[in-house]
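ok trying this again, last paste got cut off
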Amino acid sequence: FALQIWQPLRGCANSQNSLWKDMGDCRYSLDDIDGASRFYQSALQSGRRQRDRNAVAQSLCDLGDCSRRLENFTLAEQRYQKALKLVETAGAQVSTLALKGEIYEGLGELCYRRQDYKKACDLFEKALEAKSRTHGPGDPGLRDIWLRLSQLYILEQRSTKAVPHLEKLVTMLRRFEPDSLETARVKHRLAQYLAVQGRHCECAALCQEATSVFEKHLAPASGELRGCLLSQGNALCWLERFKEAEQIGRRLLEPDSSEGLHLQTARAVKVLAISLSGQHKFQDALPHHRSAVALFARIKGRQDHETINANEHLNITLAHLSQTKLDHRA
C-alpha cells in the first residue's frame, strides 16, 4: 500500500521525505523499531540528497529515538547531538522549535535512564520551553514532559518544583480524560505532595475526585483505592473534619479489606484513632492508638518516626483521660 502511494510522488522530494517519516512513525508506534529505523534511514538519505537541514535533523532525531529504544545510548546521544547542532543554526522557526523540543526530550530521557536526574531536569525544562512556544502552554502534547518533570523533581527531592507540573497535568487530564485511571493516579500523586506543603484542603478535594474514579474501576481491597482513601483521611484529620475521617478509617479497617500486617493497615488504625480523639471520644480512641503503636513498632521498628509519632498521639490521649479522671474526682 505504501509503495502504491509512493509511485506518484517519486519526483517530489519533500513528499518522499514525509512518506518515509510517516512510514517510520507507523512502524515505531507498532514497536517495530528495526523497521522504523530502515524508513528513517531512507528519510535521512533523501534529506541529505536535497540538502534539507530540517529534514536531516528530524531524521537524526527519529533515529536517536530508535537507538534509545534499543538501549544503544551512545549512538542515540550522537544522533541527538548532531540533530541539535543542525537545528541550532536554523533559527527560531516554529517547525525548528518543535524539533528542538523533541531533541531535548530525547536527551533528557537518556539522562533519566543514566540516573543523572539533575541534568535530565534541565533538558526537560528546555523541551518544555520549546514545545510550549509551538503547542501552547496547556496543550495535551506537553503531557509526557509534565509527567516526567514531576517524576524527576520528586527523585531529586524537590517536590515543590514537581507540584506546578502535576497541577498543569491534572488540568489537562480533567479536560480530556476526566474518568480515566491515569487521571485518578495523577490526582492522588499531586494530592500527596500538596499534603507535604500543608495544602490539606486541596489534598482532600483531589483525593475525593480520585476515589470516585478508583471506585468505578478497582476492587474495594485495591491498594490504590485504599492508599487514596488513606491520604484523604489524613488530610481530613489535619482539617479537623474528624467525623468524615472516622468514616474513612472504619471503611479502611473493614474485614475484607484490611487483612494481614500491612503498613496501610497501621496508618488506617492511626487515622481512626486520631479522628476519635478529635471528637473527644478518648476512651474509644485508646485501643486504636495502642494498636497503631504496636503495628508500627512491628513493621518499622520502635525508633522509626511513624512509631514515635503514633506513640505521641497515644500519650496525648492518655493525658486527656487522666485529666478527665482528675476532673471527675474534683
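PB: full thing came through this time. The two ends are 94 Å apart (CA to CA).
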